Amino acid sequence: MPLQGKLNIVGIGPGSAKYLTQEAEEVLRSSEYVLGYNSYIEQAKPVLEDTKVIKSGMGKEVERAKETVKKAKNNEVSLISGGDPNIYGLAGITLEVARNKGYDKEIQIIPGVTALSALASRLKDPFKGEIIVISLSDYLTHWSDILKRAKKASTEEMNLVLYNPRSKSRPDKLKKILKVYKENKSYDPDFVIGKNVCRDSEELIVTSVSEVLNSEIYKKIDMRSICIVGNKKSNLDKLKNNPEGPYMVSIGPGNEKYTTKISKDLIEESNKVYGSKRYFDSLNLIDKTNNSGVNSSSYSNRVKTRIRKAQQVDGVTSILMGGTSSIYGSSILGEWHEEINQKIPGVSSFQMLAAKTGSPLISDFAITSPIENNWIKTVEKFKKLGVAIVLFNLSRKNYIELKKSVKDQRNFIALGRNVSRKNEELCIDKLSGSIEKNMDSSAKNYTAIISPLSSTYWKEKNYLISKRGYGRKYEY
């Protein structure tokens, strides 16, 4: 009887094995082979004791993808990707190779905690409003495209997240981006550098764009850094970690398989845990709940009431947050940031949607929501620049409004609700299609990803594949 093949593309999170989701750990332990970049293999080492490991260096991404697909024909094989495989990771490359090789076995993509969520969890309220995420590496994206996206972002009140900000081969391109921001802003934006986030050598520097441009701080930024440029409303101050306060524990998209080890351990260690009933149901928690007196109509007030109640309990307490608390979740705390211990990052609903629908992101992307005044204009502006668009808290009415406004409707869109839960809804179509017919008119919690025009559809797997790399950068 032939061996059953399976291909896993696994996000291992930032810096430490304790940020692995339960699903990632189980899949890695069950795999016969695990392939990955040297430092990622080292990071996942605690769960790779009985696994055949194949390591390779930087720049060998295509070779790793090819070897993974080859071995996965008759074995369960996992290819590990730092952070999340859909955010500057290996999902796109691997799916392209698999499709080109005619791979017909099972494929599973497992999301992981991102560097941006990890850094944001160390700060008070970094993401007030819309977010644009850009990699400054010009190896796979033309520098002219990177600069256009950054210039457009600098004219909006968006939070800018910079991946791969500075390397030996491009030491001064970050300066060009920051000078653009300085020229286009009437104020000096706050600037945060996170180095080795979630590792023992973690370092956070909170400063400003002007200070970075005019001091030795600039030289501290490297490829192990991730940076945030704030807007007028964002609060990039470091979280003070009040030891008397509760932990704000992100539990992921609603299925305990995608809760991280650190979140699970904190919940088990806590004397009391607070949160909505559906969070408790998703984690099968029964005996630690104490939600009496927190039925306020305002979500913000419910969370603040839980903080007050938690402060009256001796020992460790936790408050459950869906997805990851730093994206459309942290702002509810306001001054209450002084009253909490730590924020624990998790997997966001948009990452779960991306994993279920292939590789709709891969490169630069913007995050917005109908709660923002100019959200449709944001979609139109950045879609033209080849940026993927993530939409939170979407309703059927919102989507119809969007379709009426967007002229070019050739892009694919992935739409989901309750993704990874029992009542999951998933759909892939083009903007020109009729995806709204599948939407519940009473629901306001859809998540959507509009892929770049370069994306293609793999019908046999019902996957979107976004190509990362221009011209002939990658040969398959």
TrEMBL record:
Protein name as catalogued: Precorrin-3B methylase CobJ
One of the GO biological process terms:
cobalamin biosynthetic process
| Record's keyword terms, sorted | Cobalamin biosynthesis, Methyltransferase, S-adenosyl-L-methionine, Transferase
Under InterPro entries, the record lists: 4pyrrol_Mease, 4pyrrol_Methylase_sf, 4pyrrole_Mease_sub1, 4pyrrole_Mease_sub2, Cbl_synth_CobJ/CibH_dom, Precorrin_MeTrfase
Residue ranges of domain Tetrapyrrole methylase in the record: 6-212, 247-431
The pathway to which it is assigned is: Cofactor biosynthesis; adenosylcobalamin biosynthesis
Q: Which GO terms describe its molecular function?
A: methyltransferase activity
